[in-house]
Amino acid sequence: KKQILKKDFLFFSEVARYEAHNYFVLEIDELYEAEERGSAARRFILNKKLYKKGYSRFDSYYRLADKQLNYPLCVLDRDELLSWDEPGMLWRSAEGAALKLFVENLSVDNKSVNQDINGEKIAGKLLKDFIFWHDSEKFAYSYAKREWEKKELEEYQNVDESEKILRLIEKYINSAVLYTEINKQIDFVLKDLQEVGVCLTEQQLKTFLQLYSDFLNSSRKWPLCGWQPVELSNLYKNFSKPAISFGKNMQRAFEDGTLNKDELIEEIRKLDIDVIDM
After folding, report:
1. Cα angle, residue 226 at apex, residues 175 and 153 outer, rounded to 5°
2. Rounded to two decimals, what is the model's pTM?
3. Of the four listed, 56, 125, 141, 241, which is most buried by Cβ atoms within 10 Å?
């Protein structure tokens, strides 16, 4: 009987792993080789966004699990917990919807010579209206040797540019990435925008900083065990004040006069964020 139940579980585990679900069901020894399989309490439900093919396929999970050890588990009520299985739930808050709308309505500079995947110029187009492959994506595709790898990359990369930017932001929000400082996150997003041909005005940059900060502080984050940073701030009264320093791209913008450094610092401090490493 135990053998039958085990086979049944493995069958449903395989179904969850390979069909159109957004999660895996994993035995403990699939994540930690030294562990032995046991009851359901020793199995894991793992979001597919934490998985990648290859030798280091669970690296994102390991970093996340290590980060989560620093925080208590946030226990949500049943309705809210189940709602997080719905696609795009992260962007349904007021802060998420505002940032999403801002990104979707950014446009490529009219002087840009960049082209979409069909060879058509994207100058003046909104990010939600074209598909563009970045240099890193072209390299990954050219490096792939197997047909299934190329097919997977095509499916993943052939989405609107606004979706790629939002996907990048979501990665920073929900993954225990190595570059967790907000200034580095913003710097990477700005680099992608610059590569596609978006030239933010000073006012647009200020708006983006505020929207990003609001979204960051109000989102339920995996590394924080489901807590919003604002909730943890109330939970721990000695929670440190967030701070930002400027990356190389923004430093260059200060030097060539594209951005007014003093005005930008003033706007950031209005958000109750410290500015460091000036």
Report:
1. 30
2. 0.74
3. 125
